[in-house]
Amino acid sequence: MSRPFLIAILLILAGILLPFAFWGEAFDAAFSLEGTLAWLSGRGSWAGLAGVLLLVGDIVLPVPSTVVMSALGLMFGAWTGGLLAASGSFLAGLTAYLACRWLGRPAALWLAGEDSMRRGEALFARSGGWIVALSRWMPVLPEAVSCLAGLVKMDLRAYLASLACGSLPVGFAFAAIGALGRTSPGSAMALSAGVPVLLWLFARRWLKHV
Question: From 169's CA, which of 25, 115, 131, 176 has a CA 20 to 30 Å away?
Answer without folding.
Answer: 25
